[in-house]
Amino acid sequence: MSKELETTFHKYAKYGDPKAPGHEMSGKNFAKLCKECNILENGCTSADVDVVFSKVKSKGARVINFSEFQDGLKQLSRKRFQGMGNALPAIHKLVEGKDPESPGSTKTVAVGAVDRLTDISKYGGTHKERFNESGKGASGSEEVTHDSGHVEACKGKEMKQ
After folding, report:
1. Model pTM greater than 0.85?
2. Domain residue spans in the chain?
3. Contacting residues for 36 by C-beta, under 8 A, at least 6 apart
4. I want to staple 87 with a disulfide (CB 3.0 to 4.6 A). Which of 7, 27, 77, 127 is the partner?
């Protein structure tokens, strides 16, 4: 028995319920583990996973412990690796060291916000004309300084007090 296999079991047992102690796994999390670890290939289906879960769990129980989990993997290995002599180590290799995936979670982008917002390849139509080739705003590409102390629109006008 591998310590990595037990660690993976505990991670998936806790998935979706932060208060769970991680000693028992639900059928939903068992199916998730099988899907994410590519056990559902070569003739092994989600229906097979559900049947195996029902067989290994205690009567009336809704969850499995680690020893029942190992028995379930043993049964699934025969289905997934039909004809192979070393099916159990092969299925353990698929499962060991895996973490539950969180679908729909936002991935961080390494590019800075200004780079993303001034990338002209992401703009189309009239918005593309707002930027020059370097990505600077077309109206702000020249560095012009005014010594008047006033806003350009007010130049030459008297200020009322």
Report:
1. no
2. 3-95, 110-138
3. 98, 100, 101
4. 77
